[in-house]
Amino acid sequence: MAGPILSNIEAAMKTLIDGMTVAGGYNKTWGDSNEDDLAKKDAYPNAEIRLIDEENQDEIDGGFSSAYANRATFEVTVHDKLTSVYDNPEYQINVELNKCLDDLKKLFGINYHVSDTVNMIYYRGMVRDEPEKAGDIVVPRKMVTTWMVTYSQGREDPTSNAN
Question: Which of 13, 19, 113, 155 is the most buried (most CB within 10 A)?
Answer without folding.
Answer: 13
